[in-house]
Amino acid sequence: MSLIVQKFGGSSVRDAERIQNVARIIAETYVKGNDVIVVLSAQGDTTDDLIEKAKEINPSASKRELDMLLSTGEQISVSLCAMALEAMGLPCVSLTAWQAGIQSTAVHTDARIKRIDSERIQAELDQHRIVIVTGFQGVDRSGDVTTLGRGGSDTSAVALAAAFRADLCQIYTDVDGVYTTDPRLVPTARKLEEITYDEMLELASQGAQVLHNRSVELAKKFRVNLEVLSSLERKPGT
Known about the structure:
Elements: E1 3-8, H1 16-31, E2 35-40, H2 46-57, H3 63-87, E3 92-95, H4 97-100, E4 102-104, E5 113-116, H5 119-126, E6 130-134, E7 137-139, E8 145-147, H6 152-163, E9 168-173, H7 197-205, H8 213-222, E10 226-230
Parallel strand pairs: 1-2, 1-9, 2-6, 3-6, 9-10
Antiparallel strand pairs: 4-5, 7-8
Helix pairs in contact: 1-3, 2-3, 6-8, 7-8
């Protein structure tokens, strides 16, 4: 039996059909006998929409209140995914970052994860539940919700994989792996079967949006085995 962390981005959970698809992927992993921790982003353009709503009310809103607002996007995703898994008869629980023990710095809208209290998640895994955690967020020492900046859900997934010594951390996205260049712009782009942490960091720093560079740095530091693959096509990734 393995422990697998699976992260799904916003495009993978953007509507009911995509959430059902994600639930099937999670279910397939779970029924093979694996423990599964899932990390979800907010649906589609939800975060951008929430930012626009904030501007309508107060263009100068404090970063603390922005974090309170933006953190609701991931909460919607995890609860809907849990409902989909419940409908399939699978045991699961959705957790916010503070319930999951993800402790961060107090830098609102760009916090960093300091440590993860593993007690709650481990207790749920011990009950053989699929644990679905909100990505992109943490809680500071005052108990305030923080967000981790763009690409923060990748960081959440890698941090959880490191904390629980997961056998594999799978980053599901709308592309089927890491390419030599953007395959949507260059038809001759070649998919890589594997890539080093340093090579991935270089691609990320040059603007590749497959993985956030902070998550790659974390993966390198804790030797997390990462796989990037498509949530829409069942084929090997990178």
